[in-house]
Specification:
Structural class: alpha/beta
Distance between the termini: 55 Å
Radius of gyration: 20 Å
Helix content: 25-40%
Number of helices: 6
Mean pLDDT: 94
Bound molecules: 3-methylcatechol, fe (iii) ion
Number of domains: 1
Oligomer: single chain
Shape: globular
CATH topology: Protocatechuate 3,4-Dioxygenase, subunit A
Low-confidence stretches: 1-5
Number of strands: 14
Strand content: 15-25%
Length: 285
Amino acid sequence: MSDTTTLKATAAGSGASATERFLTDKTGASGSRTDAARVNTLATALITAVHDVIRSHQVTYEEYNALKSWLISVGQDGEWPLFLDVWIEHVVEEVVTAARQGSKGTIEGPYYVPGAPALPSVSSLPMRDTEAGTPLLFQGQVTGVDGEPLAGALLEMWQADDDGLYAQFAPGIPEWNLRGSIVTDDDGRFAVTTIQPAPYQIPTDGSCGRLIAAADWHPWRPAHLHLRVSAHGHEPLTTQLYFTGGAHLQDDVASAVKPELVLDPRSNGTGACEVTYDFVLDPNS
Ligand code: MBD
Ligand code: FE
């Protein structure tokens, strides 16, 4: 018997998965490396910035306690990855990639999983027979900054399904659904069949949703494909691609849209859409 409550995507469920994922993949190496002088500089600057907000906005005890209780609940919901990636990461990405010559990138967000199944240069992303959405043929070439094709580059793709759910962060979806690692051919080319993604709402039933409601913001991101493009001797590129004319290109809750990242797919007359997009990777720094 299928029990709908056990299959319901919840903020706490996706938050717990995203927190676990982050602790598995992203700590360890960087967790203890920062030296004390740098910690002192950054922690002092951050705490001082908060003091300035309290003084300039004459924060009350009621507001201080509301903040304290909200911060506690973000952790209880596992929503620190979501909060940080939606409201903070875009500025880190801007600072860290400012000197790049190759393709523009944007934020990774909380739902990348390394190790998606390897696929040949001409492939379909894994999907269900019943997968909803318009088929999309996404093709292009990966090169270095001098135009040299990068054979054997890895194009990792991940996206939400038509209900806005990511495999491994919501229940009831096959493990690698709409996730794959495409390997480019001898010319650096790839051609991937997937589905056109739908606009996406970040979870609204947890602490981030309570902040959005309390501040009268909205939870929407424009429809997007996530990509991580990597090749030997080159800086990996983390990016997202959007769709011209789509909702929320101008008011992405995660502030992660750039004009260079907007695709304009054309109908190919068979009920599918096609678009070409090329990636240029910087050499390793
Ligand atoms: C997403 O799917 C996403 O891409 C970002 C940046 C934040 C939350 C959910
Ligand atoms: Fe996303």
